[in-house]
Amino acid sequence: MCSNPLPTLKTIEKMMHCLLGDQVAAKNSVPGPDLTKPHVVASYVNDANEVQRILVCDLALANSMGAAMSMIPAAVANDATKAGIVAQNIESNLGEVLNICVNLFTEDSTDRLTYSNLRVCTPKDPAPAVKQSVKFALDIPRYIGGSLSAGSV
Amino acid sequence: MKVLVVDDSKAMRMIVIRTLKQAGINNLTTIEAASGVEGLAMVADHKPNAILSDWNMPEMKGIDFLKKLREDGNETLFGFVTSECSPEVKKEAEDAGAKFFIVKPFTPNSFEAALAPVLAN
Predict the structure, then answer these.
(1) CA B8, CA B73: separation in Å to the nearest integer?
(2) How many structural domains compose chain B?
(3) For a Cys staple, A137 with which of A29, A89, A148, B89, CB 3.0–4.6 Å?
(4) pLDDT in tens, A51-81
(5) Looking only at Cα atoms, what is the longest distance across chain A?
(6) Distance (Å) from the C-alpha of residue B52 to the closest C-alpha of chain A?
(7) Could you list the residue range(s) of the whole structural domain that residue B39 is in?
(8) Nearest residue of A to residue B88 by CA position?
(9) In which region does residue B73 sit, left (phi positive, over 0), alpha (psi from -120 to 50) or beta (all else)?
(10) A139: part of which helix (H) or strand (E)?
(11) Average pLDDT for residues A33-57, to the nearest whole number?
């Protein structure tokens, strides 16, 4: 059984400040990402390649996080969100953000997890069911914010 | 000081270079590579004083890049900047000859803390 913890508000805040700047604001939030609309799911696997943890975020937030990492204009992120996709020039940045976010699950834990992939999910192609999750809202200055959840699978 | 930054993410290379500058490394010049294979060519051509490399990269992983350098007799100061942080990975890096290990996400302070002792030598 995977012992990796789910992140706290403090660990989310610290991670986002390091990745996207000190102006990013985080707070606990319910109900979390709107799964009736396209959303991004990042999977984290153990050494046996079994998905153990996932991060789910609103598509708008995903595009914003990827764009904010290298200051891609917000309009590029917003246009991609309207089209229901992750922008091509944002995807590698977003992958890097989500790759680093593996360390949200590894504090105080010896179980090794690695980032596997990201995909855009919809109600017809849903994310894996989670046993337990924590939910946050992020506000990124100059970009559209949104909700993010971290769950155990 | 000439530093080679190796990471398959262009954005991450940019952030590493920005953080090196914020950490106050003196007389810094930087060069970049997107993989271990590119890194080997850059080391041969540009002879950097130090190398900061990601761990997980396509073509050639950072650890294989380091091992190849040492096999070839190259002893350039080498450290990892990576999201990998397990004790096993750190030990493998140290055994191969890495002198420092910076975990992503990082701050200028974490760069300074990792680099100051090795640069002092």
Answers:
(1) 25
(2) 1
(3) A29
(4) 999 999 999 999 999 999 989 999 999 999 9
(5) 43
(6) 17
(7) 2-120
(8) A112
(9) left
(10) strand A132-139
(11) 95
- B18: helix, coil or strand? helix
Tell me the three state secondary structure of residue A147.
strand
Q: CATH number of the domain that B80 lies in?
A: 3.40.50.2300
Closest Cβ opposite residue A103 in set B83, B88, B107? B83
CATH number of A9-20+37-152, picked from 3.40.50, 3.10.450, 3.40.1550, 2.102.10: 3.40.1550
Question: What confidence tier does B86 reach under pLDDT thresholds 50, 70, 90?
Answer: confident
Which chain B residues are closer than 8 Å to A92 by Cβ?
9-11
Q: What is the pLDDT of residues B20-40, one digit of tens each?
A: 998 888 789 999 999 999 999
What ipTM score was computed for the predicted complex, to two decimals? 0.75
Q: What angle do CA B69, B75, B78 make, to 5 degrees?
A: 80
CB pairs A-B closer than 8 Å: 41
pLDDT computed for residue A134 by the predictor: 96
Model-level pTM? Answer: 0.86
DSSP for A27-74 reads EE-SS-S-TTS-EEEEEEE-TT--EEEEEEEEHHHHHHHHHHHTT--H
Q: Radius of gyration over alpha carbons of chain A, in Å?
A: 14
CB of A93 within 8 Å of any CB in chain B? yes
